[in-house]
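Look at one such:
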Amino acid sequence: MGKVIKLNEFRKRKAKADREKQAEINRRLHGRTKAERAREELQKQRLTRGLDGARLTTPPGAASSDADEQGDDGEETESD
């Protein structure tokens, strides 16, 4: 007679092997090393600092409160 195999265990082992294989594929496609992530983060910080240093005007959210109270023609508007 042949070897007795518990089908439930076989199914679980096969599913686990499939998940591990898919995880390996995903790591190869999407994974980055720690050095790659650090280099990209440093590059992003340098770019942000360079852009902020070259900014000519303040961003819209950082405008002073006096400018918010003035209308388009420079006159103060009445706020409720």
Observations:
- The chain is about 60% helix and 0% strand.
